[in-house]
């Protein structure tokens, strides 16, 4: 079964009025409107802070059944600990997201490694074996590598072994090889200036090429380009 969840990496942008958010929509209703147009959001907020219980409850209440939240892993896991000896932080992260998990609204967890983190397969393998990340009820994971040394068959084999997606990121500095390592897929579309209609059509073809769950997020910025691109992409897929 194919499921495609698409959106942007954030929603709280007053500057998206009136091209995306109607002028009459209040800021407190942004997420509710966003979720009426798009099917998922990547929450970058969790890179620096875990959501408060009421904050997460409000997010969940503002979105319909079938909507998915993907969350970026905290920097203390990916940047400070650099995947080493961070089991307590992983446990805390998952505990904070428990309401989203319980309501079936958890998309995937994105672990974005810093650009100066070179390939260390032993450390990655040890991290992926953490008990919290194992078992039939484990969350879907995606890893975004930002150093070229990771793009090897050894890395892909480690991800495949644990059913972890290689995050396919398109940025100014580095584009990830489109190699699928899991039963789910994770894309980050970061092309400056957005995507043309012809490019959106090509993206739709890429996202519908295989079955399973696919999560795709456009750049968050002051201009509503990413949100409009995501809206057009979902229309193309439909």
Number of helices: 9
CATH topological fold name: TIM Barrel
Let me know the average pLDDT.
95
Parts with pLDDT < 50 across at least 5 consecutive residues: none
Structural class: alpha/beta
Q: Give the helices and strands as they follow along the chain.
A: EHEHEHHHEHEHEEEHEH
Proportion of residues in helical segments: 25-40%
Let me know the number of strands.
Answer: 9
- Report the top-level CATH class: Alpha Beta
Rg, rounded, reads: 17 Å
Count of structural domains: 1
Query: Can you say what the CATH homologous superfamily is?
Result: Protein of unknown function UPF0759
Beginning-to-end CA distance, first to last residue = 15 Å
**Global morphology:** globular
Strand order of the largest sheet: 2-3-4-5-6
Largest sheet: 5 strands, parallel
CATH architecture level-2 label: Alpha-Beta Barrel
Strand residues, percent: 15-25%
Task: Please explain how this structure is put together.
The protein is an alpha/beta fold and 238 residues long. The mean pLDDT is 95. The protein is 33% helix and 19% strand. It has a single domain (2-237), classed as Alpha-Beta Barrel (TIM Barrel), CATH 3.20.20. It is globular. The protein has helices at residues 30-37, 53-61, 75-80, 87-96, 98-102, 121-128, 153-161, 197-207, 225-237; strands spanning 2-8, 40-43, 68-72, 106-112, 140-144, 165-166, 168-170, 184-189, 212-218. The longest helix has 13 residues, at 225-237. The two termini are 15 Å apart. The strands form 2 sheets. Strands 2-3-4-5-6 form a 5-stranded parallel sheet. Strands 1-9-8-7 form a 4-stranded parallel sheet, covered by helices on one side. Helix 6 packs parallel to helix 7 and helix 8 packs across helix 9 (225-237). Helix 8 (197-207) links the parallel strand 8 and strand 9. It is built from 9 helices and 9 strands.
